[in-house]
Amino acid sequence: MDPSPNISALSLFDLHGHNVLITGATRGIGAACAIALAEAGANICLVQRPPTDGVENKGTYDAIIARNASATIIHCNLEDLDQVRDLFPRALEAMGGNIHVLVNCAGIQRRHPAVAFPETDWDDVIDVNLKVCWILSQAAGQHMVPLRRGKIINVCSLLTFQGGLTVPAYAAAKGALGQLTKALSNEWSQHNVQVNGICPGYIATDMNEKLLQDPVRLRQISERIPAGRWGEPKDFAGPIVFLASRASQYVCGELLVVDGGWMGR
Fold first, then answer.
1. At what angle do helices 132-147 and 81-94 cross, to 10 degrees?
2. 213 or 159: which carries more pLDDT confidence?
3. In terms of residue numbers, what domain contains 139?
């Protein structure tokens, strides 16, 4: 690994001139992360589904442009692995041949009792939450390792550590993603490529809508969070900039839990 830069503390977080490829940034945690990275100076390549009925979701893009930052949209259906295999080369071309940071944030959820969990749902969850991350990370490593620089950030989960209820596929995928993060870090840290994960706790996003609408589960979960509240997407602005920047140059294979104290309890 290259030595950590000897510059001022605030300069460590400066991302001007850095190109970021991020999945899952149309809403929630991903959108907040993309905007935060843009505010730190990065050029953002947003991966989005092809427009439905010709209507493009440009909320995150517009928010970045409004901050006088740079954003590009590239279309890919992450449930189509053939499209995913072509994604990194397409993004690389769109960003002028350089990607400094990959953020794997896209994810899907399926909830069923384990005895009735459909195999098709299992495959979909494993593919989007794990295999897509592997395909993109491998492509990023092939680009970053020879250049001796780069950051890969995987958005994991509390279910990287815990089993959850009625979400066996999601727990399996996120558990494996945590191990993949460590495995890639073990190989690539020596080449100055830092691979880390962020593990969100209970965050008020669309993915948790069913929990938020269940008064019993909402109360049970809320009472167990030491911070006394569910997290918000903006709680990830600081952690994502830290892991994407030179401030985390000696942070390798870390799973950074952002959960209001849930795991500490």
1. 30
2. 159
3. 10-258
Banded model confidence at residue 218, pLDDT cuts 50, 70, 90: confident
Q: What would the DSSP string read from start to end of 58-125?
A: -HHHHHHHTTT--EEEEE--TT-HHHHHHHHHHHHHHTTT---EEEE---------GGG--HHHHHHH
145-203 pLDDT, tens digit per residue, is 999 999 999 999 999 999 999 999 999 999 999 999 999 999 999 999 999 999 999 99
Residue 182 belongs to a domain:
yes
Closest CA to 25 of 51, 1, 60, 55: 60
Q: Given a cut of 80, is residue 10 above it in pLDDT?
A: yes
Considering the domain boundaries, does residue 253 fall inside one? yes
This prediction has a pTM of: 0.95
Closest CA to 230 of 264, 257, 206, 260: 260
- Residue in 145, 146, 172 with CA at minimum distance from that of residue 161: 172
Active centre residues (catalytic): 170
Structure tokens at 62: 């517009």
Domain of residue 175, CATH code: 3.40.50.720
What's the number of domains the chain is made of? 1
